[in-house]
Amino acid sequence: MTLAILNRQRTKRINARHLRAILQTLLEDLGIASAELGINLVGVREMTLLNETFLRHSGSTDVITFDHGPGTGARNGKAPGLHGELFVCVNEAVAQAKRFRCTWQAEIVRYIVHGVLHLLGHDDLKSEARRRMKREENRLVRRLGLKNSFAELSRAAKIRP
């Protein structure tokens, strides 16, 4: 399993080690044993460029998922491997957290869950599929919150001697 977390923003300090632990818990809960996944934490400028270049949408957005795998969803009854990249806009997480009255750390986790669900084949273009995806997203975020402290994402990792 390869999990790469790249922090290319300066809005908030993020404990990448703790984020990796949350991501590993998510993948375990989903029964995913094989993954090559990159998480890119970016600012509004980079997210706007990605959104406009690849999705042809103006402005920034919260999360963009790039699927690099040969296919999505469960294959032959086995848990699929994930191969992709998520771009998460930390500025959007901060703004949306205020709107939804939660922490920016919880929003970042939500965006990662959302992106992983896309890699698993979930779609949010049609209303019924969007409702199913949102229910699963909420369930997973609640479950992760019971197992992990999202607040720890903003604490610097302790350096061991």
Provide an overview of this structure.
Helices cover 46% and strands 17% of the residues. With 161 residues, it is of the alpha/beta class. Strands 1-2-4-3 form a four-stranded mixed sheet. Strand 1, helix 1 and strand 2 form a beta-alpha-beta unit. Helix 3 (90-100) packs across helix 4. Mean pLDDT is 91; it is low at 72-78.
Radius of gyration: 15 Å
Number of strands: 4
Main beta-sheet annotation: 4 strands, mixed
Average pLDDT level: 91
Structural class: alpha/beta
Going by CATH, what is the homologous superfamily? Metalloproteases ("zincins"), catalytic domain
Report low-confidence residues grouped into runs of 5 or more. 72-78
Q: What is the count of helical runs?
A: 5
Tell me the β content. 15-25%
From the spread of the alpha carbons, the general shape counts as: globular
Helical residues, percent: 40-55%
CATH topology group: Collagenase (Catalytic Domain)
CATH class: Alpha Beta
Assembly annotation: single chain
Annotated CATH architecture: 3-Layer(aba) Sandwich
**Strand arrangement, largest sheet?**
1-2-4-3
